[in-house]
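Researcher: Here's a chain I'd like modeled. Treat it as a single chain, no partners, no ligands.
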Amino acid sequence: MPPPNKSFFLYGSVGIEFALAVLLGLFAGRWADQRMGTGGGLALLGFALGVLTGFRSLWRVAQQAQREAERGSTPDKQDPWK
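Model: Modeled as a single isolated chain. Structure tokens:
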């Protein structure tokens, strides 16, 4: 069985990171709304912060992929399992 490809896990986890950031922000905002008795503004703020955090993660991975693409791969460094 071939070893797992590192980039597969790196790029495959971006969607999970994005969803977790959004949900964590939303639930933290809802918790703060219930705790402080506010009308949902903190949930909206938490959601927005989660979206921004998710996009930041997406941006970092895209930048890393761009750097790897610019470096290119030489024939001796290609994955032998492809």
